């Protein structure tokens, strides 16, 4: 419950965020609706992988793993630009794209851990790349500045000292990614209401 309150609190400040130039654009609203659905699908796929990690390794509760987390170097993509009172679509979209890129690479660690679910991981990575591409295209259509990332992944994969750390690291990659997606979803949904 506390986490839900903490995740919700920054959104209370967004109601006055000015983005009038985008609000009446039908193409932009269509983009938002399509990508809200796309983000919801990605969240569902991440939840499915979280259930697999829970069922396979009995790693289900974050609070039980916090001590192990301290020993792991797990990237958590920032999305503070999607929370700010001075919300700007350009900076929020850029952070969403950068985060998708980070998690795209991090998910490769799950393929080695869950070879029987490699297809789901690959589908998820493809969906993430498509969502990032959709956002980039929309930013270009709106005349917003974009960053083009190289096709090869520049972020090194996390390394783990043991199989258990690999399992716990994968658990936290998915948990962080799920929180990231929830915030990105809220940002897109907020834009639909302007």
Characterization of the model:
- With 194 residues, the protein is an all-alpha fold.
- It has a single domain, classed as Up-down Bundle (Growth Hormone, Chain: A).
- It has 8 helices and no strands.
- The chain has helices spanning 2-8, 20-23, 26-57, 66-69, 89-106, 108-113, 118-141, 163-192.
- α5 (89-106) runs antiparallel to α7.
- The chain is elongated.
- The protein starts with a helix and ends with a helix.
Q: Quick recap of the structure?
A:
Keywords: Disulfide bond, Glycoprotein, Growth factor, Secreted, Signal. This is MGF factor. The chain is mostly helical and 194 residues long.
Q: Work out the number of β strands.
A: 0
Q: Report the structural category.
A: mainly alpha
Shape: elongated
> Sheet bearing the most strands, described?
none
Mean of the pLDDT scores? 82
CATH topology: Growth Hormone, Chain: A
Which architecture per CATH?
Up-down Bundle
The CATH class is Mainly Alpha
**Content of β-strand:** under 5%
Poorly predicted sequence stretches spanning 5 or more consecutive residues:
1-20
How many domains?
1
Radius of gyration (CA) equals 17 Å
Pfam families: GCSF
Protein name: MGF factor
Main location: secreted
Keywords: Disulfide bond, Glycoprotein, Growth factor, Secreted, Signal
């Amino acid at each position: 419950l506390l986490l839900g309150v903490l995740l919700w609190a920054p959104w209370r400040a967004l109601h006055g965020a000015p983005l009038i130039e985008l609000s009446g654009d039908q193409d932009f609203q269509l983009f938002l609706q399509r990508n809200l659905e796309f983000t919801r699908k990605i969240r569902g796929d991440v939840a499915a992988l979280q259930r697999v990690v829970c069922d396979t390794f009995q790693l289900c509760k974050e609070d039980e793993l916090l001590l192990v987390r301290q020993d792991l170097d797990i990237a958590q993509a920032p999305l503070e630009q999607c929370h700010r009172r001075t919300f700007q679509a350009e900076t929020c979209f850029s952070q969403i794209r950068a985060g998708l890129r980070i998690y795209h690479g991090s998910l490769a660690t799950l393929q080695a851990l869950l070879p029987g679910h490699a297809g789901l991981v690959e589908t998820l990575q493809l969906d993430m790349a498509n969502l990032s591409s959709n956002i980039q295209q929309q930013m270009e259509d709106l005349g917003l500045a974009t960053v083009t990332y190289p096709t090869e992944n520049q972020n090194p994969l996390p390394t783990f000292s043991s199989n258990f750390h690999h399992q716990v690291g994968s658990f936290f990659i998915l948990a962080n990614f799920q929180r990231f997606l929830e915030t990105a979803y809220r940002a897109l949904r907020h834009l639909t209401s302007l």
